[in-house]
Amino acid sequence: MALSFVGPSMFPRIFLFLCKVWVVVALGALVMPLAVWIMIFIQNTQTFADTMGHYMGNDQRVYDQVDNSPGSGYVSDTNIPKHLAGVIFAAAFDVGMWVLILISIAADLFWKFDLLKRFLEAFWAAGLYDERKFVEIEFFFVIANAFLKLFIVAATGAQTYTGLVPDLNDSPPVDTPLFCLYAVMILLCSIPLTVIALMFILHGKKMREYKDELAAAEGKA
């Protein structure tokens, strides 16, 4: 068994294995922003409820009087804007980011799990592969997911500069903006390596399917 592994294909197999390992490890770079947006959602809604109660009006003077931060565009210690139903829009955006990150995770691993293919199809995000074989997959799908990750980087990184502050009641306090910064930097650095790894993985899948189809055609002949 070990001897059969040695040969011209040994190093390509090792490299392909490392690519697959990297893609799995790089999922952590997407899990971190997902955790960030869950933290933001919880911190936003709890702090807003503690500060403003059930008020969701459009009068900034009311916000300024209650949260003692006149002139600020955000409710104190949150990234919720001071306008009509701002907390609802902020919460909807948070949930939307959860979905986009899960789509990106599925797009990184669709080649391995059929469940993730169906997940992408549920959101009409199947890309160019659709129901076709790996032989027909275009690498544009990988690049499109890379741009989705760049949007996640931009959206998550923006939270570093909004009104979020550590909750001093926590022990130790969680510095959400700093965690945002770490998350986006790690994700940003992982994007080019993941694109390269996925291209090699898909190329390997293409070659295997092509050889199988060629062998089947020769068998019929």
UniProtKB/TrEMBL annotation:
Parts of the chain that traverse the membrane: 21-42, 84-111, 139-161, 181-202
Highest rank taxon of the organism: Eukaryota
UniProt entry keywords in alphabetical sequence: Membrane, Transmembrane, Transmembrane helix
Highest classification ranks of the organism: Eukaryota, Fungi, Dikarya, Basidiomycota, Agaricomycotina
UniProt organism field: Kwoniella heveanensis BCC8398
Protein name: Uncharacterized protein
Keyword Transmembrane attached: yes
